[in-house]
Amino acid sequence: MPSPYETQAMYELRRWQYEVQREPSFFNDLAHKTQVKINSYIPEKVHRAITAAMKQMIRGVLFGAEYISQKPLEQAPLEVREAQVRGQIKYYQQAAAAEGGVTGAGGIFLGLVDFPLLLSLKLKLLYDIAASYGYDVRDYRERVYLLHIFELAFSSQQHRRNVYRHLADWETQKELLPEDINAFDWRSLQQEYRDYIDLAKMAQLIPVIGAPIGAVVNYRLVTKLGETAMNAYRMRWKEQGYLLQ
Q1: Number of domains present in the structure of the chain
Q2: CB neighbours (10 Å) of residue 43?
Q3: What radius of gyration do the chain's Cα atoms show?
Q4: Would you call 155 helix, strand, or coil by DSSP?
């Protein structure tokens, strides 16, 4: 029999799954098509440069954080694990808000610094959450799983549905992974992420008002990532039989 906490977690998981799988709304679809059109006007060499830069930033954090990540938590019930996860999310919310406020106050120049700093905080949060659920990120496949969670959190609704289907069958999908992380679809990741945060982050580049905007936006982005990660790991626990229905 599941515990009361697990019953509540399953309820929250089902609600999240419904939201992730729903059809894109008219406005979701319109916004996505508009962004795709805008991207078509950007020179290919610019796309390649952005993709390469983001790829190197994420690779650096993914492989560097391997040496400072926590040990996987063993032999603990879901309630204990998620209490730890909520504490981690709160810590990174505060860190991201502080960082966004400082860089936002500096206008465009410091605002540009925000991108790699916030990216590092987000990926480190994912490392910590993975360990809390008992997964060892020294395994290359676990790091790919984190990238998919990242995609799931910061993508258009249509792309989110595609990533969800991939993660919902992760135990099968992970056996089909290429040996090299360079085979990951970095172009899709960077475009979806950039398009998702563009409008919110542009206002952060404006001096004076950029500080409060940067703090709020960063806080909400980390909140979104934390909630997505929790439910992705709940879904995985359910798939592996650790979480009873």
Answers
A1: 1
A2: 8
A3: 18
A4: coil
What number is the average pLDDT over the span 57-82?
78
Write down the pLDDT at residue 109: 45
For 215, the token pair is 């703090």
Q: Is 89 part of any domain?
A: yes
Percent of the chain predicted with pLDDT > 90 = 31
**Whole-number Å distance between alpha carbons of 66 and 126:** 12
205 is a domain residue: yes
Supply the DSSP string of 10-28, one letter for each residue.
HHHHHHHHHHHHSPPPHHH
Q: Read off the amino acid at residue 117.
A: L
Cα→Cα distances 20→17, 163, 165, 167, 192, Å: 5, 10, 10, 12, 16
Contact 194, 58 (CB under 8 A): no
Amino acid at 126: L
Q: Which amino acid is at 232?
A: A
Nearest Cα neighbor of 221 from 147, 119, 144 is 119
Residue 65: which domain range?
4-240
CA 220 to chain centroid: 12
The token duo for 26 is 């008219």
Residue 136 included in any domain: yes
Question: Would you say residue 245 lies in a domain?
Answer: no
